[in-house]
Structure formats: C-alpha cells, structure tokens
Write a structure and sequence with these properties.
heterodimer; A: MetI-like fold; 2 domains; 21 helices; 0% strand; B: alpha/beta; 6-stranded mixed sheet; 4-stranded antiparallel sheet; 8 helices; globular
C-alpha cells in the first residue's frame, strides 16, 4: 500500500533542478492570504454570483446526466433487452458506442462545444451532462446486469409483462446503488463546474483564475473559502444520507452481496430525487438555458489543405509517452502519499485534523490553478502538472482512506496497541492491512480517472497530449484536434480496461 | 371434463441422455398429483415444461385442451393461470410483504398500478385476508421480506402465488430445505389450496409425505415408471422406483 509512495524519491531528486529562483515571495503572500480573505462587499458579491452560477451549472448538468444515464443505462443493459426481446446484442452494441463519449473529459467537451456553439450557458451544462451521463449509464448497466435474476424470472413466468416485471423486480434493488453513485456524481459535478469556469465557461472558476493571474490572493481565498462552504456541507449531507439509507459505501467496489430492504426508504429516496430534479429545473430557468442553442452551430472555418499531413507529423510517441508518464507519476503520488502521511501524523490529533484540511483543499481546488501556482516556483513541465494532479486526487483518495479506516473494525488495532506496539505500527498492521485491497482497487480506478484528467493540466502548459490539444484548439486545426481526440479516447479505453482488470484481480472477484 | 394440463409425448434432450423421454400426463381440475423419483429423474424438467419455462424438443403441451399460444400477449394470459412456488422462493428482498404479495397481481395490472405498488400500499384488505388464510399475522404486511423467518417467507411466497389466482399450482420440491414441522405445515397448506377447483402438481423426494395426494407419478430416467391413484400405491412399487436408480446413480 505504501509502495507507490516510492515515486517521491525521483521527484525529490528532480525538484531542485526544476526550481527557479523567483516566486517564493509570491508563494508566501499566497499562504498568508489564506487567513485574511478579502471581505470587500463588491468582491464578495461578484464571488457569490459566480458561486451561484457554478452551483446551478453543476446541479443542472448533474440532473440531466442522471436522467440521460438512467435511460441509456436501461437501453444498454443486457437483462433489459433479454427480457423484452430475447436478444442481447443491441445492448452490447450500445454499450460499446457509449464508451467513446465517456472517454473524453468534460473539459474537452466544454472547449469543443465552446468552439462549435460559442459561449452559452447550455455549453457548460452539456459539457458535464455528456460524459457524466455516459458514466452513469455504464454504472446502471453494470448494476442491473449484476443483480440476481431469480425474482425477475419468477414474475415473468407468472405472465407479467416484461416492463412491469423489470420495474418491480429490479427497480428496488437498483435504487440504493444508483443514488449512492448519483450522490458521488453531484460532488464531482461541483468540482467539474468550477474547473470549467477556470477555462472560461463562466462561474466561480473564472473569478478564481482572474484573481490568481492578477495576484489578488486575498480575493482568491475569499472565493476558495466560499467554495469550501458549499462543498463541505454537501459532502457531509451526502455521506449522512448514505448512512441513513444504509447504501453501499464507495470503497466497497466489489459486487454487492448484502441486499437490504428498501421499503419505505424507497419513497424518501424518490421524493428527494424528485425535488432535486425540480430544483435543477429552477436552476436551468435561472441560467436561461435554452437547449436549442446546442443546435445552432457556428460555421466551421474551412479545413486547411495539408492539415492531415501536419496532424500526422505531430510527435505522437513523445506526446503519448508524456501523457502516460504524467498519469503514472500523478497516480503514484495520489495513491501512495495518503497512507504515508496518515501514518506519519497518526500519533497527533492536530496533525490528523490538519491533514483533513489539506485533503479538503486538494479536492476543492481545481488542478490547473495548483499548476499555475506551482509555476511561480517551478519550471513548466511534467513536475508541476504531476504535482497538481496528484494533489487533487490525493484529496479524493485521502478522504476515502479515512472513511474506510474509520469504518474498519478497530479491535485488531486495539489489540496491537495494548500489546505495546507504537500507534503507527498498530495502524499499519491493524487497519491498513484490512482496507489495503479495496483501497488499491479504488486507486486502480482512480488512475484511469487521472489519465482522463491529464488533459486538464496539459491545457495550462504541462506536457503530453493535453498541451498539444490546447495549441490545436486555439489554432482551429480541426484535423489535429480530431486525431488528438481519437488518441485520447483510445488511450483512455485501454487504460480503463487495464484498471478494470487490475481491480478485479485485487478484489479477487 | 377437459384436462387442465396435458403433456403429450414430451421429450427434452439432455447432454448425454434425454432429460424427459416421451412423457404423457393429464391433470384434471381438483387433482392433487405428487411427482416422485430419484435425483436426476426429470422432475424439475417436467415442472419447467409444465410452467412454460422450457420448450420441449418434441411433443406438445395443452392447456385446457388447446396448444400453448405463440403470441406474447396470449401466452402471458395463459401463464397467469399457472402459479409456481419456487424452491428458492424468488421473493423480492428489497420490498415489503405487501408489495411482494401484490407482485402476484402484476400480470393483471397495468404500468401505473405497478409503479404505484412500489410507492404506496395497495389492496391492503385482500392481502390481509390472504395472510390470515395462511396463518400469518396481518401485521407482517409492512415488514420487509428480508426480515422474516424461513417459515414465514415460505408462506409469503405461497401467498404471492395465491394472489395470482392461478388454476394450477406447481411446486418443485418445496419441502426440501425445511425442518419436519415446517414441511408438514406447508404441505398441508399446499394440499388445501390445491384442492378443487384448482389442481396441484408437486415434486417430492420423500415418499412418507404422500398421504394427502390423489395421484402419484413415478419418474425414472426421464420416463414415467408408474402413474396410479395413491390408494393403489404399494411399498414394492416405491422400492422398485428407487432401487433401480441406485444402479444408475452415477448418470444423474
């Protein structure tokens, strides 16, 4: 579990070379400003408006993706096709087709749609809804096809029409898993909406970027604390609801063996879901989203002659190698550093609290902003990009690790402590050994997300396919963009397959 | 009186030997028929053919003297009149007892009521009466089935079956995993509910439980070894049925 942290060694060796002289003063100012956020009413007003836009975009994008995901998930589930028509191949075909939109990061969708349609509120929403919807569809399909079918076949053989039988036999067991995943997706949507803002699609992210670029650190921190004030209660609320309804926790990625009754909780879940969708409808009205905007494409600039040759002449091997190296480094950082830090601070209470705060900031903070900040002291290249991505994902994995550790049985650790082992060893042997498998399995899944996210830091001048994509986008080189997207999609699909395999191996399923 | 269910010369092919080999069987309303035979004799296959889960390779299944409908809707209407008590019960664990009972009505209900059943309690009175008839507390209606005991679950599954209002009850070794007291209780209920105007076809592996049945069929190696009124059954016939199987047990 600690092995991935070994990546720190080469990074620490590289660090002195990558440092450049200036900028430490700025970093100091930035850190100091954390405790003195700007309270200027004008600033706050603008930030609050940005925050409202970000939240609204996240909510609407999430709601659309959920509806889209459930519909597509049903349409690509084998059990549905099997019961309705006796054939499975349309489900498999659709599932394969859906892999393509899923493999492209929401930011790329955002920038593509921005180029095609122009700056409209619907663009940010669609950028979230398309990849998220297909992700939800995959989860719905997997959940549905993994459910036991005995009760379904009992209903079918009693002469129940297939749609009704599917609804009654598979609906109730599907709901908790779907909502648990949906809650997690809402958190993700808020992060994505902030990120899209950083790249000019409106909302708080935009304000954050402008403050950082103009070195207005006090304003920057006001925005960050505001974002934190929304994110924290949201995370707490979702975790609470998950416990209240005894839904599967996120770290239990294996097949769900325990089937819990839904009964009256099912009604509460549906009411909550319904009111959230209504709220999303209200938010869409407020943002003045008009879905027909998505149909009005701006005229594309004519394709240049010889564009394909130029596109093929790009340094593909080094671009792909850069992307992979970036992924591996960031993933190793994200997976390995969490347990290491937790072990180091284990004896101190304040240390643990501080760590929680650090991880929270990591989750909250859009990686391109971290990368920009790191550029104050580091030379551009792989290192700031990997650190920024690693820091962000460390925040996500760190929280999972803490949740899993606190949910794990404390008795082995108590037994070890009482036999005189130090707190660190007790934690390592007593708890880490229990959660290690599922944590690493989640880490494998996360690496696949990180691969998709490399584009985010690539776009602020990191390395790999992402930075090339940025150049191609800004010069309207559509052939290059097309090939880059294909390369990205292929890479992601291969990565997804690899991470799936290693996860299955780790979970022994 | 036309037979409720007629199996004519049914053959179902298996990997090495036929699972059913030219089986003929008629079941009239009011008849309670026990299906006996060693493991692998074809009891489960015969029940699967009877409830339409399995299509025979040869022969035909007649329901009220007519062949099985080929169109989906008409086929479903036939299926609705045949109720099966599954060995693994196949209750929907996430739902309450009442929702599970109403699942038996889904064939007759449309979409809106099926959806409503998941949200609010429907037809409480009918469900309550059914539970009382099967010696269960009506208070169980609101309980999730996952919290019930084994014996209660058996009865809830039977209640769901009765909610379907079938003309024929099928059960594949329903007593296999029950302790003697529960087995006796469930069998008594099945015999009572399977009486006229319904019919009951039940597979068993314990010849000592035949008391309440009208007719007994012995299956061996996919063929009917005997088909006689229970009163005509002698211990010798039974010994023959199982003795032969011991020699061929490995084939199963």
């Amino acid at each position: 579990m600690l092995l991935p942290a070994a990546v720190l060694l080469p990074l620490l060796l590289l660090l002195p070379q990558a440092l450049h002289g200036g900028g430490w003063e700025l970093v100091g100012q930035f850190a100091a400003a954390a405790l003195q956020p700007s309270l200027d009413p004008l600033v706050l007003q603008s930030l609050l408006r940005g925050l409202a836009i970000t939240c609204a975009v996240a909510l609407v994008g999430w709601a659309v993706s959920l509806v889209l995901g459930v519909v597509l998930g049903l349409a690509s589930a084998r059990v549905v096709w099997q019961s309705l028509s006796g054939r499975c191949w349309p489900a498999d075909l659709l599932a394969r087709l859906l892999a393509l939109p899923r493999s492209i990061h929401e930011l790329i969708w955002g920038l593509l749609l921005l180029q095609l349609i122009g700056l409209q509120p619907a663009v940010a929403v669609a950028a979230i809804a398309i990849p998220y919807g297909t992700l939800v569809a995959r989860v719905v399909r997997d959940l549905l096809d993994a459910l036991p079918r005995a009760s379904l076949s009992a209903l079918l053989s009693a002469g129940t029409p297939a749609p009704t039988a599917l609804l009654t036999a598979l609906g109730p067991p599907l709901l908790p898993g779907l909502l648990s995943y949906g809650g997690y997706r809402l958190e993700c949507a808020l992060r994505s909406a902030t990120l899209l803002g950083v790249f000019g699609l409106g909302g708080l992210g935009n304000d954050l970027l402008l403050s950082l670029q103009s070195l207005q650190f006090h304003e920057l921190w006001s925005g960050l604390w505001l974002l934190l004030a929304v994110m924290l209660p949201l995370e707490a609320l979702i975790a609470r609801l998950r416990r209240h309804w005894s839904m599967p926790a996120r770290l239990s990625l294996g097949p769900q063996t325990q089937r819990r009754p839904v009964g009256r909780r099912g009604r509460q879940m549906l009411v909550l879901l319904g009111s959230l969708l209504l709220l999303a409808w209200g938010a869409a009205r407020w943002l003045q989203i008009d879905p027909t905007q998505l149909l009005h494409w701006q005229p594309l600039p004519p394709l240049g002659q010889g564009g394909w040759q130029e596109a093929l002449a790009l340094p593909w091997p080094s671009l792909i190698a850069g992307t992979l190296l970036l992924t591996l480094t960031a993933a190793a950082l994200a997976v390995g550093v969490g347990p290491l830090l937790l072990l180091l601070v284990a004896p101190w209470r304040q240390g643990r609290a501080l760590l929680q705060l650090g991880w929270m900031l990591g989750r909250l903070w859009p990686p391109p902003l971290t990368a920009l900040l790191l550029l104050f002291v580091l030379k551009p290249g792989l290192l700031p990009a990997a650190l920024a991505l690693g820091f962000h994902n460390l925040g996500i994995l760190g929280r999972l690790l803490r949740e899993a550790c606190s949910a794990a049985d404390p008795t082995p650790e108590q037994a070890l402590s009482s036999s005189g082992s130090g707190p660190r060893l007790a934690l390592l042997y007593g708890r880490f050994s229990r959660v290690a498998r599922s944590y690493l399995a989640y880490g494998a899944y996360r690496s696949d997300v990180i691969l998709r996210e490399t584009v985010v830091v690539g776009l602020v001048g990191g390395t790999g396919l992402g930075s090339q994509l940025r150049e191609s986008l800004s010069s309207f080189a559509w052939q290059q963009i097309g090939l880059l997207l294909v390369a990205y999609a292929l890479l992601t699909l291969v990565g997804e397959d690899l991470s799936d395999r290693s996860r299955r191996q780790l979970l022994g399923a | 009186m036309t037979a409720l269910l007629t199996l004519e010369n049914i053959t179902v092919r298996g990997r090495c030997q036929p699972r059913l080999d030219g089986v003929n069987l008629q079941l009239r309303p009011g008849e309670r028929l026990a299906l006996l035979g060693p493991s692998g004799a074809g009891k489960s296959t015969l029940l699967a053919v009877a409830n339409g889960l399995l299509e025979p390779d040869q022969g035909q299944v007649l329901w009220h003297g007519e062949t099985r409908a080929s169109r989906a809707r008409a086929r479903r209407r036939q299926q609705r009149r045949i109720g099966t008590l599954w060995q693994d019960l196949r209750l929907i664990e996430e739902l309450t007892v009442q929702q599970n009972l109403n699942a038996g009505r889904l064939g007759a209900w449309g979409w809106p009521r099926a959806l409503l059943n998941l949200l609010v309690p429907l037809e409480t009175q009918a469900c309550r009466e059914l539970l009382l008839r099967l010696d269960l507390e009506p208070g169980l209606l609101v309980e999730p089935v996952a919290t019930l005991s084994g014996g209660q679950r058996q009865r809830v599954a039977l209640a769901r079956l009765l909610r379907q209002e079938p003309e024929l009850l099928l059960a594949d070794e329903p007593l296999a995993s029950l302790d003697p007291r529960l087995a006796d209780g469930l069998l008594a209920l099945l015999l009572r509910e399977g009486a006229a105007p319904r019919a009951l076809l039940l597979s068993l592996h314990r010849p000592d439980l035949l008391a309440g049945f009208d007719r007994v069929i012995g299956l061996r190696g996919g063929q009917v070894a005997f088909d006689m009124p229970r009163s005509a059954l002698t211990p010798a016939t039974l010994t023959d049925l199982y003795a032969d199987a011991k020699g061929a047990a490995g084939v199963g």
